[in-house]
Amino acid sequence: MNAPAEIIVTGRNITVSSYHRSHIADKLAHLEHFNRHVIRFDVELNHEPNPRQSKSSLQVVITGRGKGPTVRAEARGADAHAALEAAVGRLEGRLRRDHDRHQVHHYRHQRMATGTGRA
């Protein structure tokens, strides 16, 4: 079994509390089901100080790095929870599509018996 992915949280123009760090770790923990090759998640929280941008003042960018292609998702929201939910949802959708694409679908269409069994 692989070790859990390392999660690095950085904040620009915002202080990231330990509560937010643990909340982000909980949200990203269930994404390892889709791709076990991700070694590190870089989460960047960016606060826009312009009051005219209050509806989308917080931006969350999540970048997953590891073996294979780098996956990235970003979202904006009025607060940290809304932006994080949107970014995790987008990243989960991307990882789910990639996971489904690599699954082997042999035996999906099995032949039906054509005989009635009578002699």
Automatic annotation (TrEMBL):
Superkingdom to which the source organism belongs: Bacteria
Tagged with keyword RNA-binding: no
Keywords attached to this entry: Translation regulation
InterPro entries: HPF/YfiA_ribosome-assoc, RHF-like, RHF/RaiA
Protein name: Ribosome hibernation-promoting factor, HPF/YfiA family
Organism: Pseudonocardia yunnanensis
Highest classification ranks of the organism: Bacteria, Bacillati, Actinomycetota, Actinomycetes, Pseudonocardiales
